[in-house]
Task: inverse folding
């Protein structure tokens, strides 16, 4: 049986990037509405 | 409760549930044996891709109806959907290569699916730039509507590109004519994530729509 690849670092990177993009956009909307 | 606050609450609920998706995907969903943990990127990448494409379809539909009816609510919705679609497209274009490196051995390849998705992202950017570049809001809305309709026409091509061309990108394993090829627990995680991305899309669009209303009120438009 082949070994399971050890590539959890890529998984963590993708999950962090997604969270940063979504939180960044949420913050951007909040700041724009506060200015408006 | 104002539209803006409603959108904020929906977004916050979506972000809280996204944390639940992370926990479920990382701790309670089995690791795929051939791809390893990197396969779990799928639970974010595909829902983001579905909403990046659906957002553009909604931009196109809103644009068509705007050109016929001249109802500014439709234009506001199209602009909001385009901005949110750009965010989801950015997620697709970052998580995709992060998955591709360990699985394909390369971050990027110029195959039909990847290239057409990059084109979708550029269309979104072009749409947003065009709206900002034209001083007359009505004229800008008309130009943007035409670009939005072009973007909508690209979406079926993106979806079918894996069938029409020989690509490195995997074929759909859920959105296909036959039954999904994912085991139940993986499918449940994916559906949960799709629901959360749907909630985030709705929350973001409501907020962005409300922002357009605020700007118009401030500028007396």
Result:
């Amino acid at each position: 049986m082949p070994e399971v690849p050890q590539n959890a670092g890529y998984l963590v990177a993708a999950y962090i990037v997604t969270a940063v993009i979504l939180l960044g956009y949420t913050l951007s909307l909040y700041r724009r509405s506060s200015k408006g | 409760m104002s539209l803006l606050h409603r959108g904020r609450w929906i977004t916050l609920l979506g972000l809280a549930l996204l944390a639940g998706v992370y926990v479920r995907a990382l701790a309670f969903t089995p690791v795929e044996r051939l791809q390893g943990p990197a396969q779990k990127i799928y639970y974010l990448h595909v829902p983001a891709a579905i909403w990046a494409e659906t957002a553009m379809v909604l931009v196109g539909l809103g644009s068509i109806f705007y050109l016929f009816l001249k109802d500014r609510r439709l234009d506001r919705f199209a602009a909001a959907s385009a901005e949110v679609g750009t965010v989801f497209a950015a997620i697709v274009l970052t998580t995709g290569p992060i998955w591709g490196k360990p699985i394909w051995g390369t971050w990027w390849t110029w195959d039909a699916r990847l290239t057409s998705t990059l084109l979708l992202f550029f269309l979104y950017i072009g749409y947003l730039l065009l709206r900002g570049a034209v001083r007359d809001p009505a004229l800008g809305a008309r130009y943007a509507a035409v670009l939005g309709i072009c973007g909508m026409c690209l979406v079926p091509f993106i979806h079918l590109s894996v069938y029409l061309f020989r690509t490195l990108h995997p074929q759909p394993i859920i959105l296909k004519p036959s039954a999904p090829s994912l085991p139940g627990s993986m499918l449940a995680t994916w559906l949960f994530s799709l629901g959360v991305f749907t909630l985030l899309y709705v929350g973001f669009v409501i907020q962005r729509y409300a922002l357009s209303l605020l700007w118009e009120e401030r500028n007396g438009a």
Observations:
- Chain B has a mean pLDDT of 94.
